């Protein structure tokens, strides 16, 4: 049975154990669950607080750090993360609740100029992300945001086909993995599928899953980016691939190209390689 929402102040004063206890009956948001038959992994605890709950493997601590970094170094609207902790192999990420509609639910109802505003705004967000500089980029270590450069994390996201791959201690190691997967796919299909992984492109801060479901048109009139679970330091074309959705409308295809810099960074060949690699 679901109960009424708590006060914001009460949530902020609660211990981790108390928060875990109220999660079982907190209202779940109506979003798809990654596991069939399981409740949605996001619950609303108060009018302005929600909590993301998943196995630690799918909700590591670096998502919290990435949200803090983006909030501190850009003007991109990102929910404020309040707390991250682990209890019984489950991870909990407490953050602000953003009221609004995802692009997934309202894109088809938008006028041309509304879609143009969304496109231009997202393009600006991606440019801001790419201006972030970290020691990890200087060391050319791809993957999620890390504190210890000697301990890279597993990579996860649409480009990897929703699998965990790596970890990689260098950009060259990631290129070798993708090129090996491409060769395996070519052997399976008996013809050349695409171009090899270009490891000359710089590593930039990437959201990694900038699909319609992860962009909220807020009631405050701003465009919010949520779900940073696939974020990290990756080649620029990862953003383009991560924006792809099943049966996407043609208008979103053009938005992807303009937002992720398709014509500026030669994404076409690299994106083709990624798609071919993941078909095997």
Automatic annotation (TrEMBL):
Gene3D superfamilies recorded: 3.90.1200.10
Domain Aminoglycoside phosphotransferase: 201-260
InterPro entries documented for this protein: AGP_Transferase (IPR051678), Aminoglycoside_PTrfase (IPR002575), Kinase-like_dom_sf (IPR011009)
Protein name (record): Aminoglycoside phosphotransferase domain-containing protein
Listed Pfam families: APH
